[in-house]
Amino acid sequence: MEALAGQRLRDGSDLWTATTLVDLLDDEGEVDAGKVSEAIDQLAAAKPHYVKSGPGASFDLGARPVAPAEHSFADVLRGGRRGGG
């Protein structure tokens, strides 16, 4: 069930904050995908920050390009500029 929830939620285990296993089973004791989907919908409505970003959204874990340093470490080793500036 967490794998199914993980398709829409950032962390599939968050499903358990909104429901229990018994609530997600059908009359035969099998997982009811419809009930799981409904529980995810309810959780998403209550806690939208639990939901994965939509298609096209940028999610890069905060990585940003870094401008090249004015002086490289090799410059310092060769006796290039020293100090601040």
Task: Walk me through what this model shows.
Mean pLDDT is 80; it is low at 56-60. By secondary structure, the protein is an all-alpha fold. The chain has helices at residues 2-5, 33-46, 73-77. The longest helix is centred in the middle third of the chain and has 14 residues, at 33-46. It contains three helices and no strands. It is rod-shaped and about 80 Å long. It has a domain at 1-53.
Task: Itemize the secondary structure elements and their pairings.
Elements: H1 2-5, H2 33-46, H3 73-77
- What Rg, in angstroms, do the CA atoms define? 24 Å
Which band does the percent of strand residues land in? under 5%
The SSE order reads: HHH
Q: State the total count of DSSP E strands.
A: 0
- The helix/strand class is mainly alpha
* Averaged pLDDT: 80
Residue share in helix: 25-40%
The tally of helices reads: 3
Residue runs with pLDDT of under 50 for 5 or more positions: 56-60
Largest sheet: none
Q: What is the first-to-last residue Cα distance?
A: 58 Å
Form type? rod-shaped
